[in-house]
Design a protein that fits this description.
Length: 229
């Protein structure tokens, strides 16, 4: 970020990890073979058939801390569009607007807003706060109005990994940088483990999904999702 997040390119990991979907079927039958409903839209794809309890996650890298203008393109043929944006499970903004109505899910409208983001690698969660939304993509512009070609291009540069994942009692951080600190955070935002200067992290935690925050000695920050089994 800055860049474009294509809705259909959510993180891998399955239901409850990369996304939350109310059923296991791809109702649109397009693009991917998991449980997220993907439909054709314009010249590409969009996520559709959403309900107000569903969400999608994206691993993103924010170039620098600051305020970013946001544009989302979405459709709703039944009710108003409401979408929440979260970073590492903390809400940073919302996007809302009127859909076309009249059972029209082919007319996409622009939703505008702004968010303040911290620098580094983070988990962007797009949570649907109303039903029946189709989401095509979200654009993030920096303060100068710049937009990179694709957020996905930064993924190739990310050199920090945790393995195994899912994990039971420990994981190993693989990084060319020296690790300064590691925090494990639960879904409520509580820090449940904190370690310094270690790449082998031992833990004893209940099964579930956690956020791992890694700070290197160079001052770079990375965020990974951890599934504890």
């Amino acid at each position: 970020i800055p860049g474009t997040v294509e809705a259909e390119n959510y993180d891998k990991g399955g239901n409850g990890f990369g996304y939350k979907d109310s059923d296991s079927k791809n109702e649109g039958g397009e693009y991917r073979e998991d449980g997220v409903d993907i439909v054709k839209a314009n010249d590409g794809y969009a996520v559709g058939y959403t309900t107000s309890s569903e969400w999608l996650t994206y691993t993103v890298k924010v170039d620098k801390a600051g305020t970013y203008d946001v544009e989302a393109y979405a459709a709703n043929g039944n009710t108003d569009i409401e979408i929440d944006l979260l970073i590492d499970d903390k809400k940073v903004g919302s996007l809302s607007g009127a859909g076309a109505g009249n059972e029209d899910w082919d007319t996409y409208v622009k939703l505008e807003g702004s968010v303040t983001l911290p620098a580094g690698e983070h988990i962007l969660k797009v949570a649907f706060a109303s039903d029946y939304n189709n989401l095509d993509y979200i654009k993030f512009y920096d303060e100068e109005g710049n937009l990179s070609t694709s957020v996905a291009e930064t993924f190739k540069e990310q050199g920090v990994f945790i393995t195994p994942n899912p994990a039971k009692e420990h994981f190993v951080i693989t990084s060319e940088e020296n690790v300064a600190s590691v925090e494990i955070v639960n879904i409520t935002g509580q820090v449940v483990s904190r370690t310094a200067d270690e790449k082998v992290i031992n833990f004893s935690l209940p099964a579930g999904t956690y956020i791992v925050k890694i700070i290197t000695e160079d001052g770079n920050s990375y965020v990974k999702r951890l599934c504890v089994k």
